[in-house]
Structure to design on (284 residues):
C-alpha cells in the first residue's frame, strides 16, 4: 500500500495582527485534521519543516510549539500514546524530505499517521511590509497515512544536487544586523538564478521520469513558480516551504486535466538542490 495524503490545508496571516510561525502552522494543522474528520490524538508523528520565523527564532524546536498549538498529545492520561515531534530543516525542499521520512516511519509501523507542517513568516512579522523579502507569510499541512489501494500514493523520493553555485542563500548577516537582527534576514540570489533553476528542474524531472518510467504526458507537475508567476502574486510574495501543499490544493481545485492520472511534486532549494516525488491521488 502506498502512502497517501488524507487531508491538506493552508493558513494565511490574520490581517488584524502580526503573523507567527507557530500560529500559522497550528491553524493549518487543526484545519487539516478537521478536514480528515480526525482528532489531534490520531497523529503519531509531527514533522515541522518551516524555515523563516518571526524574530529569527531557532530554539526550542518549533515542532514542539506547533504540537501544543494543534492540541496533539497534551494530556498523558487522555492520550496514553504520546506523539513524537521534530523539526526537519531542508529549506524549500523540506516538505518532500518529510515525505521521505514519513514513508520510512509508515513502512516500519512506527506510526499510523504523520502530520507535516510548514510555515514561513518574515522575521519582522509581516512580509507585506518588506518589498525586498521574496517569500509569502504562509503555512501548510499534510496528513499522511497508508492508502487502501497499492496503486495510489507517493512513489520514490529522489534528491538531485549537482555541483555548482549556491543559487540562493538566506542567512543572518551578523556584521550588519545591529539592534534589529531579530527582525532582519538577508536573502541573496546570484545573477541568472531563475534561468539556472529552471534548467536544473528540467534536468531533474527528466532524470526522475527516465528512472521510474514516468510518462510526463500523463503527469501534472507541481513545482516551483516562475518569476512571472511570483510577481503576479503581488506584495504577498511567493510561497516557500509550504509551496507543495498550496500547489496540491490548487491542483485538486482545478480538477483533473484530460489524460492526466498522476502528479509529480518538484521542490527546488538552495545548494542548488531539487527533490522529486511522484504521486497518484486516490479517486482522482
Amino acid at each position: 500500500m502506498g502512502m497517501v495524503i488524507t487531508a491538506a490545508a493552508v493558513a494565511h496571516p490574520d490581517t488584524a495582527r502580526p503573523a507567527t510561525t507557530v500560529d500559522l502552522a497550528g491553524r493549518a494543522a487543526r484545519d487539516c485534521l478537521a478536514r480528515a474528520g480526525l482528532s489531534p490524538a490520531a497523529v503519531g508523528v509531527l514533522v515541522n519543516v518551516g524555515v523563516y520565523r518571526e524574530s529569527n527564532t531557532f530554539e526550542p524546536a518549533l515542532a514542539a510549539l506547533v504540537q501544543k498549538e494543534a492540541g496533539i498529545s497534551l494530556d498523558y492520561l487522555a492520550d496514553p500514546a504520546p506523539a513524537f515531534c521534530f523539526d526537519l530543516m531542508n529549506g524549500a525542499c523540506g516538505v518532500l524530505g518529510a515525505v521521505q521520512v514519513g514513508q520510512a516511519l509508515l513502512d516500519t509501523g512506527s506510526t499510523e499517521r504523520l502530520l507535516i507542517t510548514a510555515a514561513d513568516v518574515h522575521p519582522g512579522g509581516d512580509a507585506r511590509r518588506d518589498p525586498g523579502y521574496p517569500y509569502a507569510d504562509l503555512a501548510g499541512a499534510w496528513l499522511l497515512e497508508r492508502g487502501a489501494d497499492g496503486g495510489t500514493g507517493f512513489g520514490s523520493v529522489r534528491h538531485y544536487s549537482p555541483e555548482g553555485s549556491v543559487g540562493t542563500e538566506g542567512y543572518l548577516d551578523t556584521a550588519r544586523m545591529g539592534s534589529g537582527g531579530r527582525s532582519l534576514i538577508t536573502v541573496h540570489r546570484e545573477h541568472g538564478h531563475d534561468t539556472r533553476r529552471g534548467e536544473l528542474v528540467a534536468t531533474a524531472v527528466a532524470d526522475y521520469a527516465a528512472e521510474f518510467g514516468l510518462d510526463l504526458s500523463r503527469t501534472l507537475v507541481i513545482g516551483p513558480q516562475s518569476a512571472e508567476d511570483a510577481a503576479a502574486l503581488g506584495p504577498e510574495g511567493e510561497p516557500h516551504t509550504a509551496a507543495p501543499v498550496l500547489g496540491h490544493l490548487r491542483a485538486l481545485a482545478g480538477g483533473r486535466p484530460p489524460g492526466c492520472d498522476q502528479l509529480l511534486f518538484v521542490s527546488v532549494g538552495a545548494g542548488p538542490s531539487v527533490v522529486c516525488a511522484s504521486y497518484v491521488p486516490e479517486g482522482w
